[in-house]
Every structure is written in C-alpha cells, then in structure tokens.
Design goal:
mainly beta, 12-stranded parallel sheet, globular
Length: 385
C-alpha cells in the first residue's frame, strides 16, 4: 500500500528477468493499492445555482449570480442533479425487466464534475475544462460548489515494474485480481509496467482518481472465467485521466469506463488482441471519453445495453471514436442529452444490441482522418496557444 504523497515506486524494467512483484497465495486482491482517504468536503454555504439556461457541450465558462465567493485557481464541482424528467427522456425507467433489472433513479444521478476556475470576469467563471454533457434546465439543476479534498494524495508514480500472479489453472479465480489499483489520488502515473495472469485488471482507477496517466503498459494472459465482472484490462472510473500506448491480450473490456464516469477522459494509441467482449463505456452513462487510434480485433460499442447486467442502459454520451480500427462498432445517439461520434473509424458500422436505436454521428468511415491523433492535436493546440 502507498498512502502518502510524493512516493515513486520504480524498478529496473518490466521485461522478464528485470524487477518482478509476484502475487502469491489464494486470495482475490490488488497487489499494489495506492489511495488516500476521505471524500469531497463541499462548501455549500458558497455554492451557487446556475441560471436556468441551456449550456452546450464545449462551453468553458458558466455565469453565477455573484462571483465574489469564488477565486481563480479554486477547485469547484459542477454538480448536475438530474431529475425524473431526464430519466424519462432517456427511457431508463422503461428498461425491459428480467431478474435483477433495476430501473434508473434520480438519487443515483447527481453528477459531480471536477473543475478548476482558470479566471473570473465579472460574474463569469472560466473553467480549465469544458462542459462535456449539455446543461439543459428541463432535466435538472446545476450548481457550482467550492470543495476541498484534504485526504487525496498527490504525485505518486509506479514505473518500470513487472507484476505477475500465481494461478492454479486457466479459469482459476482465487488469486491476484488487480495489479495496480489507484483511488483518491491526483497527478499520479503508472508507466512502463507489464501485468500478467491477473483476473481483473492491470490498472484500475477508482472514482476519485484524477489526472492520472497510465502509459506504455501491458496487460497479458489474464486467468479467470470468461464472463461478467472479469478481464477489464485498463479500467477507469475517475476524471481527467489519460491511458496511452497500451497493449492487451485475452481481455474482455480492455479499455473501459464504469457507471457515471465523468470526463473528459482519454484512451489513446492502444491495441487489444484476442478480445472476448467490447471496448467502450460499459454502463450507466459515462460522460466525455475520447477513444483515439484504438486498434482491436473485436468491437468498440457506445450503445443502449438495455437490461444487460442489472440494467446497464445507455452506456455513455459525448463519446468520441477517432481513427480507430475495429472489426465492428455500434455508435448510437441517446434519446436525450447529447450525441456520440465515430470519426475516421475503419470497420463495420453495426446496429448493436437494438436495431431501432438512432445511429450516432458517423464521418469518414473507412477513411482515415488527416489529423491522426485527436488527443495530440488538442494537446499541441493547448501548449502552443
């Protein structure tokens, strides 16, 4: 366990014969767990409700009644409290029921996007990252809430290491489950690691992992049953995270987000081979993810998953596939609150689970976009001003 800021765990390399950490014994667990503690401490006394106007995706500012309670550089939550009208509009109160199916409820959809105030002009707050789900007053209220997170640790790194788990046989599940798990951490990184034989993931980020980079790493030869809840090779539930230059074999959901994963987040320049399920947002409304130059011999899907699981429903919105190469892809538009995009995707345009869902925005299918990496282009634009 790493529980403090400023620690880097570094080996001599991730190749065979270099630095190896082995998970021994018969227990599902994370071999290396990195986490602070606590939760958001919200200053509700200074929270302000936004004016009831439509704010589109891409906006980098909001207007409050009185900006005097806010400061440049302050951390705030852009807090969306979605209402019953929204649940009805996305038809997630009408999921065809089977055993275990749960309809969506408003208490689960209080989405808290982390942002930093980059500047203030009058009563306008400019934000470091844009709105990635349109703010529509008919679907609920949105407030700006100052917060602190004292227990979250910072500047922790893991690099140049090989992780392996003992296992009894190909479908054995009583062994190491996750190689590196991070939560309640920011400005962290995992790079140049290889994980082999784990049942769930090489790297898994929790909901409070922020601004974490996972780079140049591999997830190989997982050992487990090939069914639900296993083989999520590089798993992200946090915000403002980057996964880049990765490679996986024999995974199910190799580059994946979970329920209510709030962006922007990026998976870039990564490959998955011998896949057993699909890449993409997995369930219950991930928001704002870029899949940039992902190559897979399987599928990338952004769709209504209906009653799969316990009612996965619409997997995500503002999901962008850019110059990806796939066997097939389903990219659909939710009934409300936004769009999903397949741009420069090489592969079959598939209808997904439901044939009657509206297709998302497709452009340049089977033709590569001249800007190879959407992520790199945005990064260069930002750095070069």
């Amino acid at each position: 366990r790493i529980k403090s800021s400023g620690i880097v765990l570094r080996g001599e390399g991730d190749a065979e014969g270099k630095t190896l950490l082995r998970a021994t014994g018969k227990q599902q667990r994370s071999l290396l767990k990195i986490s602070g503690d606590g939760n958001y401490v919200e200053d509700q006394a200074k929270a302000q409700m936004l004016e009831a106007i439509y704010i589109p995706v891409g906006s980098k500012y909001v207007v409050v009644d009185d900006s005097r309670d806010f400061q440049k550089g302050a951390s705030v939550l852009l807090s969306y409290e979605l209402n019953a009208a929204w649940i009805k509009a996305v038809k997630m109160d009408q999921i065809i029921a089977r055993e275990g199916t749960k309809q969506w409820t408003t208490k689960e959809y209080k989405l808290k996007f982390e942002r930093v105030i980059s500047s203030i002009s009058g009563d306008t707050l400019f934000l470091d990252n844009p709105v990635v789900m349109a703010i529509d007053p008919q679907f609920g209220k949105v407030s700006v809430v100052p917060f602190k997170f004292a227990g979250r640790i910072q500047e922790v790194g893991v690099e140049n290491l090989r992780f392996e788990s003992e296992f009894a046989n190909e479908t054995n599940e009583n062994h190491g489950w996750i190689a590196v798990e991070l939560d309640k951490v920011e400005n962290a990184w995992v790079r140049n690691i290889t994980a082999r034989y784990f049942g769930y993931a090489a790297v898994s980020l929790g909901a409070f992992a922020k601004q974490t980079s996972v780079i140049n790493s591999k997830c190989l030869d997982p050992k487990s049953q090939i069914t639900g809840g296993r083989r999520y090779s590089f798993n992200n539930n946090g915000q403002l995270n980057l996964f880049r230059q990765l490679y996986t074999t024999e995974g199910r959901h190799d580059y994946v987000t979970g329920a209510r994963t709030l962006g922007p987040n990026v998976f870039s320049l990564s490959t998955a081979t011998n896949t057993h399920a699909d890449i993409g947002p997995h369930h219950r409304w991930a928001v704002g993810t870029l899949y940039d130059q992902i190559i897979t011999d399987g599928e990338i899907n952004v769709q209504d998953r209906g009653n799969w699981g316990s009612g996965h429903g619409w997997a995500g919105v503002t999901q962008v596939l850019w110059n990806c190469k796939v066997k097939r892809a389903a990219v659909q538009q939710p009934w409300a609150s936004g769009q999903n995009f397949a741009i420069g995707v090489n592969g079959e345009n598939n209808h997904g689970r439901f044939k009657d869902r509206t297709a998302g925005f497709w452009e340049n299918q089977n033709r590569k976009m001249p800007i190879e990496s959407h992520y790199e282009q945005q990064l260069n634009d930002r750095l070069n001003k």
